[in-house]
User: Fold these one by one.
Assistant:
Number 1:
Amino acid sequence: MIRRAVESEDPDRLYTLTGGRSRADDVDLDLVTLIVGEADPVAGMQSEHVRILRITRHPTSVVEISAELALPISVVKILIADLLGAGSVSARHPSSVGTLAQLPELDFLKKVLVGLKNL
Amino acid sequence: MDSKISERPARTPLQTTATEGLKIVIVGGFGVGKTTMVRSVSEINPLSTEETMTQAGVGVDYNTGAQAKTTTTVAFDFGRISLNEQMVLYLFGAPGQERFWFLWDRLFSGTLGAVVLVDARRLEDSWYAIDRLEHHGTPFIVARNNFEPPTHELSDIRRALTLPDHIPLIDCDARHRDSSKQVLIALVNHLYVLSSARETTS
């Protein structure tokens, strides 16, 4: 396990990173939403945005970006929302599944089983 | 077969065709082997991150000038398995303590299902987790992690956990890739049974 310095992060720095915002209200990003870079970094861009654009040259989940940047999930969501707003990244959202009331389709589960058995 | 962790690169990129992220959560008490299980099946070295939530205190006296805030922080590990060209399964190892459930909806809504990993010597650590999963309506199975040969029958464990008969309870050794893989297969088989039952009744 790679332990990073998230726990000792200065709250003021996190506040500055997000311009004082604490929630990415208008964008629904899951931990496993895959983010794909659509543009190269440009001069003058915030360094965290640059790092996200570099990481997402391959599809990368929100939670992996969070681990890579050593920043809390909620902060990373706000940074990604900025890039989505600017059209610099796109998001591949997961299908909505999960509770006993909303179980996944059998075909979907079959694919998961095949994938696991092939491990 | 175990692979040496040092042979794996820090973070292998996903295939460009990946479109669908899935979640399975492994819940259990401290030291029960959650990270061990994630590590044994993950295609990347387990990573760690955290979520924080800050709430303004209730009943704050603004005259004091210092606004009371409570911050909830939950750290968790995760690994990754590419199931096919499109589907990527993320495995989260999560502590079962109270503050974690406070963030469940934010972090783990849409979870395919959960594995409650139990240590037979400390079953009481998993009571709360089982109760919470039932409350959230998350399908789950229970896996007993055996670091040593087990001394109790699984039926004793089921009784001690007051686990209903329809919820699978299996043995595993989280250190071994194949055993951890069988746990995940058991969970998805359980989901399959639940989903089939729904289709026949609807």
Number 2:
Amino acid sequence: MPESVWSRILGLRKAREVNVLLALLIVGTAIGLATPYFLTTSNLMGVARAFSLTAIMSIGMVMVIITGGIDLSVGSVMGLSSLVTALCFSAGVSTGLSIAGGLLVGLVFGGVNGLLVTWVGLPPFITTLGTLSIGRGLMYVITRGIPQTPDTPPAFAVIGQGYVAFVPIPVVILIVMTAIFTVVMKMTRFGRHVYAVGGNESAARLSGVRTSRVKFIVYALSGLIASLAGVIAFSRYLSAEPASGFGAELDVIAAAAIGGASLAGGVGSVLGAVIGAALTGVISNGVVLMNINTYAQQAITGAVILIAVSMDVMRSRRKRV
Amino acid sequence: MSVFDKLLKVMLAAVPILVAGVALAKDAKDITVAVIPKVAVPFFDDCNTGAANAAKAAGVQYQWVSPQNTQGSTQVKIVEDLIAKHVDGIAISVNEPKSVEGVIKQAMAAGIKVLTFDSDSANSGRSMYIGTINAAAGATMGHSMAKAIGGKGKVAIVTGQLGASNLNERIAGIKKALAAHPAISIVTTEGTDDDLAKAVSVSEALLRGHPDLAGVFGVSQVGGPAMAKVLATKEFGERKGKLKVFAFDDLPDTLRGVKEGFIQGIMVQRPVTMGRLAVEHLVAQIQGTETAPKDVDTGVTVVDAKNLGNYTK
């Protein structure tokens, strides 16, 4: 049924992604007109690699947000996964097992988040604030403030530093993840259930959706995806420092929100979140290329976020009237 | 032929053009140098002042790019952006030495001159390092102390984090300088984690445990303010001035300690000089007048009651 598939992918639901894509194109064109260095293959690929970690994590985050939750622990989980991967290498463990060790951190943290939210019934904000602190605290306990830089086989560095043709591998991973989770969210029963839980949890439960299971899975996925970002980050920098991933949760939440996700739940999309991450990545690149006062960067990013989201909100309001 | 192949061909064709562009000697006004500090703190404001003035004097374009946080990855991203911008020179004070190694090599391969200042990444292949050589600064501190206490007596060292390499280098410098004075003995080295509250309690315990102490080295930035606070209390007030204190870094509290007589001298690093030299050396390397760069020790200024108002950085 190609028609219904296409209508789901490109249908009206995608209007919000179109808005943020528009904002990205406007900002990109403006920077491209202001400086000749922006629209080059190597720069654009560099920018994509730089925002790919935020974007990958925003895929997990947007699913949590769609259920009406939040995951503040992603930055810590990313950092701790980097660190555990590094420690595995220090201990002489093979590349495959070191990566698995890093990913296990995310699965454990995500699973604990999921259990606390569904089984104990804690609010997601408190739950993940707690695991954020635990993760960061463990990093300081383990490292005592000193970055871990074990020797790694060259093959491992390919994940973060390699290319497929001219596309950096982290970007390739991002594209694959975006495709997979777009399909999962738009075309599977699980995806529909995620939207249903966030739209109206009681109604979803009454109509037979196992809401606790859905929520547990999205937190576990968010943790796992954050740890994947952590493994990629370690492969890219080959140094796991205690501050790694510090504050990253805010960038990730911002990406999801810019991409049209509603923190009230029920609304949002994987593609929107990824484009949202791209928008902030392009802005921070533009600030350096155009020699804008670097101290103003955060303020500019904040202003662009507000403008983009306001455009989005006003457009969808007009449509509804 | 696929689109990717075409793109690849275009990119490959562009390489010789770019290389040729770099190889030609440049006018000063066509040169862009960028300076990257660790993060926005007053020390680097001073570096910016020195660097901006040097760039103005040389007539080159200048860009100051301050990271929003101290993560190694943030500086990597900034260097990538600057490579894309085709700047001619980059000076960087490194937050995390290992993580920037790859990107500095990449910049050098792209024909950009890179040097480090203040904080080094020794294995990055950068052309040179400009900054305080901590062992030499520690030696200066040791000599100052030896002179102040007349070449004899017991001294103690108050440091920050026990594992910090820059502090350990300073301590090694102190020990080397004091080796020439057999009548001076170091009774202890205390860690404070660079936490002022902890430094105060450590200093109190130190003074109680060693009533005959002649001098204290504050090798990290909390040592000076902590000793000044302790010596201002009733319990230890009578040892003010008799106990010689030498400290590091000109924080406001430390300067006040010198003014009020609690501290006899501060080793002050020279951030303005670092910034100036960084830009001057980059420009010289870009224009080809400096071909064999060597590391530069910017040294420390010893600030005491006499030059408190008019020392230069």
